[in-house]
Each structure stands twice: as structure tokens, then as C-alpha cells.
Design a protein that fits this description.
Ribosomal_bS18_CS; plastid; elongated; structural constituent of ribosome; mainly alpha; Ribosomal_bS18_sf; Small ribosomal subunit protein bS18c
Length: 101
């Protein structure tokens, strides 16, 4: 076989198509918390379209639904409980110190 012909031979790797994250029956709505929570990180950030494997239209609808749920306080804007606990502990310990004269 010539080298020139060998360059155009495609590999015969098995391709496994992944299932779409949003099924045809799923309705993208701010009240559908089980669906919305799949597209939010642990910190409360909206995951990117590449990570979610969504279409552009689906990502827009998910983003709007998440923002509506946040405004209606169904979801937190940020999930930084660890940072809050640390700052709370620091505030408590600094308030307990007694100054000597």
C-alpha cells in the first residue's frame, strides 16, 4: 500500500453515542428542580454548554429557568457554605479576645 493512500484510511474504532441529557418528554421549567439541578455545579454555578452536551436552544432555556428559580428563591445564587462557616468562626474567635491594659 502506498503512503499516500494509507493517510486517508479511517480508523475502525467503535463509537458509542451518549444519550442526550434532556429527553423529549422533559419540560424545561423553573419548577422542575430535578431537571435544573443536573445543570448546576456544587458551587451553584450554571455549567457550560460543552459540559452539559445541550443544544444552544436548550442551554438558553435552562439558563432562563435557573435564573427564574433563583429570583423566586427556589435555588440559591451561590452555594458557599464552607466559606460562610470559616468567616463565622473567625468572627467568633476575634470577638472573644480580651485586651489587657
Amino acid at each position: 500500500m502506498d503512503k499516500s493512500k494509507r493517510l486517508f484510511v479511517k480508523s475502525k474504532r467503535a463509537f458509542r453515542r451518549r444519550l442526550p441529557p434532556i429527553q423529549s418528554g422533559d419540560r424545561i421549567d423553573y419548577r422542575n428542580m430535578s431537571l435544573i439541578s443536573r445543570f448546576i455545579s456544587e458551587q451553584g454555578k450554571i455549567l457550560s454548554r460543552r459540559v452539559n452536551r445541550l443544544t444552544l436552544k436548550q442551554q438558553r432555556l435552562i439558563t432562563i429557568a435557573i435564573k427564574q428559580a433563583r429570583i423566586l428563591s427556589l435555588l440559591p445564587f451561590l452555594n458557599n457554605e464552607k466559606e460562610f462557616e470559616k468567616s463565622e468562626l473567625v468572627a467568633r474567635t476575634t470577638g472573644l479576645r480580651i485586651k489587657k491594659k
